[in-house]
User: Which sequence fits this backbone?
């Protein structure tokens, strides 16, 4: 395991690990930083600026923050209208509303109209915790993946979030940022480079590759790799922060090197990251794949810890599924 | 508006109806009813009020129009072609594969179209965004939108109505093409929108109701709307779906229907009569 060598450096990282930053604070801070230099940055909320951290943006840029009340469809339409003038709107709400409620508006007014709407959905999947099943999105990546040419990112830590956000802002076209808003310890050194569409190898290994996405599942993937090391299993871990466009070369490379792929996502096991990876494997380099994710279930209420166990989104479950995958791989080789 | 100005605009409305009927009859089918009902509104805007430049259709300081009832594209295409945004010959490409004139308005294909529309209910939100954006960018242009009975049914329209009022969008003027016909029948039998004036007023808008085929009345209402500085304006235009094609007027089945060469000839004969009456 060598991921520690790529983790955050020195005292800064240690301090951040003890008192990790809220992802929403990083999000709002970076938006404000961009807005200082670029008058085109506009932020929209639908009565969730306090939940999503963008209240601080409103304090600094009251003219460039638009709260439309609890009206997500209108928020997307207003953002699309702003975009027609060359402004760069960042509408945000919980993932469930961003994807399910306003999908048609995002599809037509933002994407079909070739606009530049940077949609952010917060509290993905089990992160919705006490908000429960109505607020729990296990399908938002799947919905968004159906939109032609969209960019979909789910950063795993504050460093990658801060690095990807300007790229999202300045890459022409609409995007969907799946944002964990709660405190997350940095995984990466501040100096680490990130690029939309290029996954990040966190650790090298030979027996299988775990491809995770997002703050919860990349962390679980890293823990699972540590546990697997105890069984003598050498695991490659990839942080696939961009789900669309998927990093095809990295997926093919992982398949070629390790011959088995396990995907891990805080989302339905179908339609999301696992499906995106499966599409690449099937066409280019078929190897056995296991998809860790929610198995055809709706969300429900509970602590995030309870829900991760309930839906199998844990390092322990990844380890168990990895063993099954490796057994299948061995049987296939024989 | 002088009498001669009004007469000129009335003549222009007939010309636009000719281009629109010809366009749809050439294809053989189309959204004729709701295209004919919006003609006077478009003529008033494009031949008297809108600051637009056919040679520079993306000029930032231009006035903008969101045609939320995007299926009325053929009427707007007739106006844009007549104003010189593109050739009138292009009108015969309506809905043909690869055309720049699709059934519903597309800002990425057609010069002079300011927003892609067609999924009812989405246009007014975009117009609100454009109006807020104009304020942010200190752009002088005004923002217009045209919605229909179908838009009025959509909940998103009322979300947008609230936000326009909340943000005090005095630079936004919206017309309702109130032809009172929907695809499934008259609004009384599909979805009633009684007291429409009161509805918009209660949402904080400056609302007026006028005869949508009376250029002078429309113009006066528009002048009053343009004088509003701090609240959005709604002009509810009482119109007739299929206006000036007597054989289809006010028949809800004219929403999207076949038009034959014979239909065209009958319509053109009527237009000739209307032109004669203006002499």
Assistant:
């Amino acid at each position: 395991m060598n991921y520690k060598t790529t983790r955050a450096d020195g005292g800064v990282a240690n301090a951040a690990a003890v008192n990790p930053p809220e992802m929403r604070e990083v999000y709002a801070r970076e938006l404000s930083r961009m807005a200082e230099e670029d008058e085109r940055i506009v932020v929209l909320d639908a009565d969730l600026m306090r939940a999503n951290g963008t209240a601080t943006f409103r304090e600094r840029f009251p003219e460039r923050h638009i709260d439309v009340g609890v009206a997500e469809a209108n928020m997307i339409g207003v953002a699309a209208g702003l975009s027609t003038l060359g402004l760069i709107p960042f509408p945000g709400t919980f993932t469930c509303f961003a994807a399910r409620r306003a999908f048609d508006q995002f599809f037509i007014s933002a994407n079909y109209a070739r606009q530049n709407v940077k949609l952010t959905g917060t509290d993905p999947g089990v992160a919705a915790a006490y908000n429960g099943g109505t607020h729990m999105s296990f399908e938002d990546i799947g919905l968004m993946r159906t939109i032609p040419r969209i960019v979909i990112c789910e950063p795993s830590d504050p460093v990658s979030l801060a690095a990807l956000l300007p790229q999202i802002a300045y890459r022409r076209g609409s995007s969907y940022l799946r944002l964990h808003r709660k405190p997350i310890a940095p995984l990466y050194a501040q100096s680490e480079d990130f690029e939309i569409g290029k996954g990040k190898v966190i650790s090298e290994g030979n027996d299988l590759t775990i491809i995770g996405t997002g703050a919860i599942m990349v962390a679980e993937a890293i823990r699972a790799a540590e546990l697997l090391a105890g069984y003598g299993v050498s695991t490659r871990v990839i942080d696939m922060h961009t789900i669309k466009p998927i990093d095809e070369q990295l997926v093919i490379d992982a398949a070629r090197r390790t011959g088995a792929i396990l995907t891990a996502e805080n989302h339905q096991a179908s339609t999301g990251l696992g499906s995106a990876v499966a599409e690449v494997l099937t066409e280019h380099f078929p190897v056995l794949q296991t998809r860790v994710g929610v198995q055809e279930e709706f969300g429900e209420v509970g602590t995030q810890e309870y829900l991760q166990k309930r839906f199998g989104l844990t390092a322990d479950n990844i380890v168990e599924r990895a063993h099954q995958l490796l057994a299948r791989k061995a049987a296939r080789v024989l | 508006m002088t009498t001669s100005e009004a007469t000129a605009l009335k003549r222009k409305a007939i010309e636009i109806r000719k281009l629109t009927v010809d366009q749809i009859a050439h294809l053989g089918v189309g959204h004729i009813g709701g295209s004919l009902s919006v003609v006077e509104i478009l003529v008033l805007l494009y031949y008297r009020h809108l600051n637009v430049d056919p040679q520079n259709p993306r000029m930032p300081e231009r006035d903008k129009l969101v045609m939320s009832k995007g299926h009325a594209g053929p009427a707007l295409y007739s106006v844009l072609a007549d104003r010189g945004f593109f050739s009138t010959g292009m009108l015969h490409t309506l809905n043909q594969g690869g055309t720049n004139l699709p059934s519903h308005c597309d800002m990425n294909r057609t010069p002079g179209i300011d927003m892609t529309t067609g999924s009812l209910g989405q246009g007014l939100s975009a117009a609100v965004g454009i109006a807020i954006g104009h304020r942010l960018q200190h752009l002088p242009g005004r923002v217009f939108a045209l919605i229909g009975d179908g838009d009025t049914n959509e909940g998103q329209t009322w979300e947008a109505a609230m936000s326009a009022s909340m943000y005090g969008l005095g630079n936004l003027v919206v017309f309702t093409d109130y032809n009172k016909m929907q695809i499934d029948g008259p609004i009384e039998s599909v979805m009633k929108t009684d007291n429409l004036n009161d509805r918009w007023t209660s949402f904080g808008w400056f609302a007026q109701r006028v005869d949508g085929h009376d250029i002078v009345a429309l113009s006066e209402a528009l002048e009053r709307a343009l004088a509003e500085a701090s609240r959005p304006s709604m002009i509810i235009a009482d119109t007739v779906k299929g206006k000036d094609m007597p054989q289809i007027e006010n028949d809800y089945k004219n929403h999207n229907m076949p038009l034959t060469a014979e239909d065209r000839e009958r319509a053109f004969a009527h237009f000739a009569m209307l032109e004669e009456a203006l002499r």
Notes: The mean pLDDT of chain B is 97. Residues 3-27 of chain B form the longest helix (25 residues). The domain at 3-278 of chain B is CATH 3.40.50.970 (Rossmann fold). The CA atoms of residues 188 and 194 of chain B lie 9 Å apart.
